[in-house]
């Protein structure tokens, strides 16, 4: 039986054309800033995001950490959704390394608004940490951030002398689903990260985008964190290929996710909210089973899934074709719960 892997879009492997681009990459020493492929990738990132500069970092977690470290400063706090990646999936790095305290706020589906943020800033008192940044995640749980929310968050932050960081790990999914450009999304944030290694299918890396002064500081901090790579153009070439060839095809992942969601919604044993399936991520529950039990039941049918936020999670990706998705739907229909 063929295994169909929906655990994450991070499990994708480079295609043969991407491997060829990596093989042919022109390289140099990036710590000396002499790697032409890295320089090209960073220039692309700056252009796409509408920022002055971009920096190639090993992961989205590193990009987020650098932004927290520089934008917040030690002893301050960042406001974020209580579902945020920086709270749940970065092993306490904001506090342990950046010295920044994330404060999670309850928000519908993890999406903040100005109304939620109002009054959450700490008063200026010597024994309280200063609220110095707002972090938004786009997408969060597969949902794109509404532009109106981002405008309100930007205005709130400006009025309170705060920075805004966008963890745009899947911002291209948001852009393809909504028609809002990555450049427009980036205009509402001081700093923006986006992953090359998720839906775009590159094996490694993210880009951190901001103004030139910030990126100069970020370059030093990247080195301090052990992220100064040498002939990393081999990896950058995969990112260049991904940005050139794998953005528009994200729409297929979204269609596959919706096909899975429609099938699941027809099962009497399942609970799913179809309105939340907008990009490549969907969540559902199986009545009478815990999420872990549900994952094991799916695995028996050759479908790999994960759990998150107390539900079963499926993530479509470029390694799962339309035909594989149709096969997964048939297997779901045949599940005995």
Question: What attributes does this structure have?
Answer:
337 residues, alpha/beta, Aspartate Aminotransferase, domain 2, Aspartate Aminotransferase, domain 1, 14 helices
Structure description:
With 337 residues, this protein is of the alpha/beta class. It folds into 2 domains: 230 residues, Type I PLP-dependent aspartate aminotransferase-like (Major domain) (Aspartate Aminotransferase, domain 2); 85 residues, Aspartate Aminotransferase, domain 1. Helix content is 41%, strand content 17%. The chain is built from 14 helices and 13 strands. It has a 7-stranded mixed β-sheet with strand order 2-8-7-6-5-3-4, sandwiched between helices. A 4-stranded antiparallel β-sheet has the order 9-10-13-12. The longest helix is centred in the last third of the chain and has 16 residues. The mean pLDDT is 97.
Mean pLDDT: 97
By CATH, the architecture of the largest domain is named 3-Layer(aba) Sandwich
H/I helix tally = 14
| Shape label | globular
Largest sheet strand order:
2-8-7-6-5-3-4
Distance between the termini: 20 Å
Number of strands: 13
Task: Return the string of H and E elements.
Answer: EHHEHEHHEHEHEHHEEHHHEEHEEEH
Which radius of gyration do the C-alpha atoms yield? 20 Å
> What is the CATH level 1 assignment of the largest domain?
Alpha Beta
CATH fold type of the largest domain: Aspartate Aminotransferase, domain 2
Within CATH, the superfamily of the largest domain carries the name Type I PLP-dependent aspartate aminotransferase-like (Major domain)
Helix content: 40-55%
* Uncertain segments: none
